[in-house]
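Worked Example 4.2. Read the sequence first, then its structure tokens.
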Amino acid sequence: MNQYQNLTSANQTNSIRTTEDSTMKKLSPLANKIILINLDSGLRKSNGVILLDDDTADAGSRGIRPRWAEVYAVGPEQLDVAAGDWVLMDHGRWSVGQNLRLADDTNLRFWLGDPDGIIGVSTTGKPDELQEV
């Protein structure tokens, strides 16, 4: 048996990672990537208690703003933030949201965040009242 035949037989015995019900136990990013959950979106209040919907195409420039998101997981090379931190992300520095069903039957909505798009970090939770400049 040559080295290539051995490789084929190893692939047959150690099959590719598949699961019977196609669910995941944990979502883990690579390198310095970060996975975000609870991305700030939807209605927000102005100082005059006017509700602004910033997630529609009609929102225009109101929708272009930094947003808070919770860090779900970080890659092994990420040194700036940790899981559980809240980060203020520069506008558009996250991927399109994806849905994933985990092994415990919970649905997870997540975004891949660009580490270079982090403007600020809160280790004590999402700040409630911040004034926009």
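Now turn to a second chain, presented in exactly the same format:
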Amino acid sequence: MPCDGFSCKRVVENRYARNKAPHGDTILPMNAFWNSFETFLGLGLEPKDLTFVQISVRGIIVFLATLIMVRLGHKRSLAHKTPFDAVLLVILASVLSRAINGSAAFFATLGGGVVLVVLHRIFAHLAYYSHGFGILVKGKPDTIVRDGECDFPVMRRNHVSTHDLEEDMRLSAHTDDLSKIRVARVERSGDISFIKNNLTHATHLTYETGDS
């Protein structure tokens, strides 16, 4: 049906209005939901203005997010096996605590935590394939006792006194006789590991064999 310019313009405007209405109906509820969410979490408020409920909800969300981050990482990072693992947990805790107390942007802080976990996982992956890179980020063990003799310069470099060595011998090796220790090492985690010699056991076996 032919129409003049004014009529065609009105038809186009009516169609545009009908198409725009559902879009506007969708945006309004989303805006209302986001405004309620902002109020619920206290987004944009100063830390001193946060309520007990807002801080509690923030803590719950950060707890769940941290649990997911840790699951994305690996189990050894929770065991503080090396300073490399401990650094992740210390920094991650420091960063995410700011999301709870409101001293930093909430979602940006959660994103920063994810970046730290991913970076740690990438470094661990590289350390698995590159021994040199593993030594760089995790360190290497040092031998402080060999065949019952202490290496005092290495002990001094690792800040291990003879009293520290004797204490770990009693707790880990269950002996206070240094001559029974074949090798003792300060591991990358900072713990001291012991390997006993088998001299006593071998002598005992020889004695029994001779009797028979």
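Notes for the reader: Residues 1-41 form one domain. The beta strands are 142-146, 149-150, 181-186, 192-196.
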